[in-house]
Amino acid sequence: MCGIVGLLVKTPALREKLGELMVPMLIGMTERGPDSAGLAVFGNPLAESQRKISVYSGLTEDGADFNWLGLSHELKSHLGVPVGIEIKGNHAVLTFDVAPAIVKRWIAEHHPKLHILSTGRSIDLYKDIGTPAEVAARYDFSKLTGSHLVGHTRMATESAVTPDRAHPFTAGEDFCLVHNGSLSNPNGIRRMLEPRGIHFETDNDTEAACRFLEWRLREGDDLETALQKGFEELDGFFTFLMGTPDKLALIRDPFACKPAVVAETDDYVAIASEFRSLAHLPGIKHATVFEPAPEEMYVWNA
Amino acid sequence: MERLTFDLATQPLRELNTFLHNDAKDGKARHVTVLNPDGAHNIAVGLDCPVEVEIIGHAGYYAGGMNKAASVTITGSAGTGVAENMMSGKVHVKGFASNGAGASAHGGLLVIDGDAGLRCGISLKGGNIVVGGSVGSFSAFMAQAGRMVICGDAGDALGDSLYEAVLYVKGSVKSLGADAQYEPMTDEDIAAVASLLDQAGLDHDPKAFRRIASKRSLYHWNADANQEY
Question: What is the value of ipTM here, to two decimals?
Answer without folding.
Answer: 0.93
